[in-house]
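Box 3.1. Reading complex inputs
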Amino acid sequence: MDYDIRFKPAFASVFLTLQPGETILAEPGAMTSMDTGLTMTTRFDWKGILRAILGGESAFLNYFKNTSREPQTIVITPSNIGDVICVDINEDGLCLQAGGFIACTEGVKLGLEWAGWASFFGGEGLFRLKLTGRGKAFIGCFGGISEERIPGIFIVDTGHLVAYDPKTKIRIKFAGSIIGSIKSGEGLVMELSGTGKMYLQSRSVDGLVRFLAPKCR
Amino acid sequence: MGDILVYEMMNKELVVQSGSYLACADSVDVDLGWQGFKSVFAGESLFWLSISGRGEVLLSSFGAIYEVDVDGEYIVDTGNIVAFEKTLNFSVGKPPGSSWISTFLGGEGFICRFKGRGKLYCQTHSPRNFGLEIGRKLPPR
């Protein structure tokens, strides 16, 4: 499988070439265009329903398989506008916030993990998506994406965390004092502790919604 | 919100999704085209613009625009078509290998299958998908 992420970072889109027999899994609606030698099957399992109810992802996944004898191309785009990155998934896994998943290769397993009440109050839901196995995954975000290593303790505004090392501990706290947090508009923040990787997005969907809401009439 | 494409008209005919038309040189003819009722299923407006003549045409999109040189067949999701040369024909259907039920459950819905030889311009992002993502968070009207 070859891939090329084009139109970074504003309208990133994944241009994939699948060799005969290769398969890519993508979230519903992500396929933009493709060659006719690919067949699409839609699958769901019980975990898929759980993922939908608890993890904020879709219950279904589309499998695109190259059933022809020649390389076939497919273009996959997330519904959000922003950057896309490709990450290598191994047995250590990677946790994803709701909506971050776009596509992955066949060796990657999509699981669900208890995220805790802290995550719930941070507006991210009680469960989180966890990718394990072996392969590549494409992750999309709203705005630009940055990959960093957590320097022991790090504070992130809610809605800006995209993915992180599963060993990371997350606490929700007020940005300052309670009154100061409300007045400053920062509200709740996430405190990450650990030394693993984290992926942050420069913009938050909630920010866009707050910007648009007063203009909708 | 997105890219703008400059298409150089050279006595060919270009079919443009009406929302994507931005501007053109005055030596270019813009006509209302008709692609049949299949356009309704294609998630596009019923009318298309049929552009011919000589000169520049500016097309806008949601997301970036990419060009596909179709020689044979090519599949595009509905809502991602910007324009295509008249030498191409499209039909509306489901993705190969899928059943109708799974197509809708899988969120892909209808797709457009282009046949022939010519240039096809697609936009990377789907306004509908973005609208669904943001729209459900906005207050009701």
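In summary: Chain B has a mean pLDDT of 86.
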